[in-house]
Amino acid sequence: MQQKDITMACKVSRFCGVCLFFLVFGANIARGQDGETRRAMVPALFIFGDSLIDNGNNNDLPSFAKANYFPYGIDFNGGPTGRFSNGYTMVDTIAELLGLPLIPPYSQASGDQIRYGVNYASAAAGILDDTGRNFVSRIPFNQQIKNFESSLEQIKSSSGAQDVSKDLAKSIFFVGMGSNDYLNNYLMPNYDTKDHYNPQQFADLLVQQYSQQLTNLYNLGARKFVIGGIGLMGCIPSILAQSSNGVCSDEVNQLVQPFNFNTKTMVNNLITTKPGSVFTYIDIGNMFQDLISNAGSYGFSVLNEGCCGIGKNSGQITCLPFQTPCPDRSKYIFWDAFHPTEAVNVLFGHKAFNGSSNFAYPFSIQQLANF
């Protein structure tokens, strides 16, 4: 089956496949809408990151970084939720492939919901606490980790510390951070970061703190980590809008390379220094390079414009409320000026879950789940 057929099959399966789950943390039992019972691959999925995987944590914040209005969610069952997409995010696809329900945002999760995982991601958030202040309110990675601690206390109070420790060690922790530390910090004119750090120094600063933050999660019981790299940021519509010829910015793409290189090195170091831990690195940059180079074979024909009214010469950042998007979202790589369409998110979710080592190193998420 060709990759674009897999993508379409996955999208269809969202509506006709497993849609309703009953899952208890540690029991791993999920029931599909058709009544079929199956076992989830892991007890839970805990998600940390930014707007690429935020699913509603910014909705009630005094923030400019929100997506809880139409046309966001136009293809999502239930409409706008806070996802910066027309439908699924990458982690939504991964959750379903793991046999889990869609993971609820921290801002809405309570009671038994937190037993199968929580999404702590926040639009405009970064590794550095100061990142994204231009959007006013957001939840930096450090605070996301504190929010996980709060969830952990709730789980322990109902399940017991020993049981939680065993299940946490089997659960997957997906972390995708770093994009905003460039887009909404280093590259912003109202930040003086670039005056103090060259690109390599900034990457060193980020990954030094990143490593400590992941160590904090490890100390809280996390053992299986999925770390997402930064994509080809020089090819997103918001960067293309600053170009006179509409060509990807090599300067911006080169800017983030030291971070991705350092992150891969960090993953290898953590594997050797954290007993019992298993890490895998998702090469989002390589996924985007493959997608752009082979767009036609994947079924995409519009590479440099957002479906949601974002032309390549537009400085618009997010979709305007009730704006009419393009009619055929499946042809577009980008949904708005920063974020990919559901079609791309589903494709990347599959590549992360069971793709080759070119996209997931040294293990796919499927292999990681089976450890």
UniProtKB/TrEMBL annotation:
The keyword Secreted applies. GO terms for cellular component: extracellular region. InterPro entries: GDSL, GDSL_esterase/lipase, SGNH_hydro_sf, SGNH_plant_lipase-like. One of its GO terms (biological process) is lipid catabolic process. It is found in: Secreted. The keyword Secreted applies. Its main location: secreted. Gene3D superfamilies: SGNH hydrolase. Coiled coil: none annotated. GO terms for molecular function: hydrolase activity, acting on ester bonds. Keywords: Hydrolase, Lipid degradation, Lipid metabolism, Secreted, Signal. Belongs to the 'GDSL' lipolytic enzyme family. This is Zeta-carotene desaturase.
